Amino acid sequence: MASAAPRPCSHPGCGVLVYDGSGRCPKHPRKTWAKRPAAPKRITGRALQRLRAELFAREPLCRACNAKALVTLATQRDHIIPLEEGGADTDDNIQPLCSACHDAKSKAERARGVRRHWDAYREG
Ligand SMILES: [Zn+2]
Ligand SMILES: [Zn+2]
């Protein structure tokens, strides 16, 4: 006799009764998806100030606006592929953006991040 009362598997739509107290049936073991590989360390402080100055000296205008034939002064040093998605903190992954374009891009990246989490949850 198990000491704990059986509980349904907590996987969405499963509901198989679990007797070992883990909360998950053998088909749906708990995922360790909280453990994600750490993103490379962000450059901060004085080093970042210098990199920004170099970038804006080289390319002072927002690249996204420029693509739409708009002329906007860049204020953000943006990672084209975000560090969280495997991008590198190197010049070829850096572009100058104005704060409006940077905001829009960050929002899209956050939305993608949320969807990735949700997919991982549903696959689990
Ligand atoms: Zn299950
Ligand atoms: Zn822009």
UniProtKB/TrEMBL annotation:
Superkingdom of origin: Bacteria
Organism name: Corticibacter populi
InterPro entries: HNH, HNH_nuc
GO molecular function: endonuclease activity; nucleic acid binding; zinc ion binding
The entry's keywords: Endonuclease, Hydrolase, Nuclease
Signal peptide: none
Pfam families linked: HNH (PF01844)
Record's protein name: HNH endonuclease
Keyword Mitochondrion: no
Keyword Nuclease: yes
Segments crossing the lipid bilayer: none
Domain HNH nuclease: 50-103
